[in-house]
Amino acid sequence: MKIVVLDGYTENPGDLSWEAMAGEGDLTVYDRTPLSEIVGRIGDAEAIFVNKTPISRDILEKCPNLKFIGVLATGFNVIDVEAAREKGVYVCNVPSYGTDAVAQFAMALLLEVCHHVGAHDQSVRKGNWTQNPDWCYWEYPLIELKGKCLGIIGYGKIGKRTAQLAQAFGMHVLVYTRHPGKEETVSFVTLDELLKQADVISLHCPLTGETEGIVCEETIGKMKDGVILINTSRGPLICEEDLASALRSGKVAGAAVDVVSVEPVREENPLLHAPNIIMTPHIAWASKEARQRLMDTAVENLIQFKNGTPQNVVNGVK
């Protein structure tokens, strides 16, 4: 079997091995693939792996030998899954590999908002502590989490793990989800109740027509004054101009986002010029341990496809 990885660098910049995948066929790995070269690089391959390289109906029509598309991610919106289904091409993703990594990162962002560890480190290195007349100082308010209320929007595996970590800090957890459970450790509430009560709001929901722009001028207006917002989910969940305005006014005291509406972030993104916001380049998922789990499952997806028992199929091919 001929196997092509079209954009392997993000998954494996050199600290993992493609050996297991290479054991399943004739493997070619490209770090990145320009749009103009996608068809040529796929060629007569039966199996491809992609992360963010788009696979359109036109590409599928020009690559008739293709039978399997492995997604090196959980999200698969870059692939025309309906066209793939019509052509009998299996599309298989990798669910749940980043649960612990993303939940941990969400808490890291929150702790950074609370303590500004990086900024204080830089302050010390600039000589501010050496020149200070007192034995200590702080350049931002320091916030303790115990007793505060965390509102989680979206309660899949990552949301649940984030709740557990927050509870370890002594936080009370409110949850808004379409499918409330019966857990005794968290309180399931309406969205309006969550917005009204939460000191911190963390987004963990998928991007759908219902959730796009769920953080906007209207919902921000319902939040507590001085709320903190965390987003490690999807950028378009937030109306970025509305959040930037709320940060400037102080309605939102601080925010930390690992995702934005268009990635890589554009220079004109209003959040780049807003105060009291931390931005990271979509890396919550990217611990080495999480990427190894992703690699292992991606290879297993291919093995199961070859065995006639495909798993993690997202486009309904029978």
CATH third-tier fold name of the largest domain: Rossmann fold
Can you tell me the CATH architecture of the largest domain? 3-Layer(aba) Sandwich
Our count of helices gives 11
Topology as a string of helices (H) and strands (E): EHEHEHEHEHHEHEEHEHEHEEH
Helix content: 25-40%
> How many strand segments?
12
Q: Helix/strand-derived class? A: alpha/beta
Structure characterization notes:
The chain has helices spanning 19-22, 38-42, 57-62, 81-86, 99-115, 117-125, 157-168, 191-197, 217-222, 240-249, 288-306; strands at 2-5, 26-29, 47-50, 68-71, 90-92, 149-153, 172-176, 187-188, 200-203, 227-231, 252-257, 277-279. With 318 residues, it is an alpha/beta fold. The protein has 2 domains: 2-97 and 288-306, 3-Layer(aba) Sandwich (Rossmann fold), CATH 3.40.50.720; 99-279, Rossmann fold (3-Layer(aba) Sandwich), CATH 3.40.50.720. The strands form 2 sheets. Strands 8-7-6-9-10-11-12 form a 7-stranded parallel sheet, with helices on both faces. Strands 2-1-3-4-5 form a 5-stranded parallel sheet. The two termini are 21 Å apart.
